[in-house]
Amino acid sequence: MNDCSARIILQARDIVPIVKRLRREKKRIVLTQGSFDLVHIGHARYCDKAREYGDVLIVGVDSDAKVRQRKGSNRPIVPEDERMEMLTHLRSVDYVVLKEAGGERFGLIKLIKPDVLVATAQTYDEKTIKNLEKFCGKVVVLDPMATTSTTAKIRLMQINTARKIEDRMRTKLIKSIEEVLEELRNN
User: Fold this and answer.
1) Which terminus of the chain is more solvent-facing, meaning fewer CB atoms within 10 Å of its CB: N or C?
2) How would you label 3-23 residue by residue, b for 16+ Cβ within 10 Å and e otherwise?
3) Between 117 and 40, where is the model more confident?
């Protein structure tokens, strides 16, 4: 791993002493969470915008098992260790915390009690946001920061791959039929 490894927290409870230190330093803590599979420009913009709400940005990253539970057995595309390290390379991200499957609902939010929780409109409904405000100073809902999502990008790759396979199969099938017809003509 790179020199950013000190900013990667594999056990959520290990963020607690860091949060305590940041609070003593009067830092405004922002938390956001997600899968961050196939990190793209929308993720970078989202983290940059989230960081504007405070002094320190902590990003909760869903474990591979948690992503599979939410998005299916073919996800994530990028393993958790790479997703976490990739996020440490974004200048707006201060700490990355792994979120394991089967943890308490809102466990990281309750643990950190951020001054600001940043989420997307698809993440929480209004009732849930009101509930989360018990654990956060403020909940900020951001619009998507890119015209496409990771899921849409994966779907496009799948469609393009299927088209290539179809084209190759069609070409080979036509060639095979032509060869068989030629054999029949010659016999």
Assistant:
1) C
2) eeeebbbeebeebeebbeebe
3) 117
How much is the pTM? 0.79
Is residue 91 within 8 Å of residue 53, measured between CB atoms? no
CA distance 10 to 100: 9
For tokens 């054999």, what's the residue?
Answer: 183
Strand order in the sheet with 95-99: 8-9, 95-99, 56-62, 29-34, 116-120, 138-142
DSSP state of 14: G
What pLDDT is attached to residue 98?
Answer: 96
Q: What is the DSSP letter of 77?
A: S
Mean pLDDT, the chain, whole residue set: 86
Under 8 Å between Cβ of 92 and 47: yes
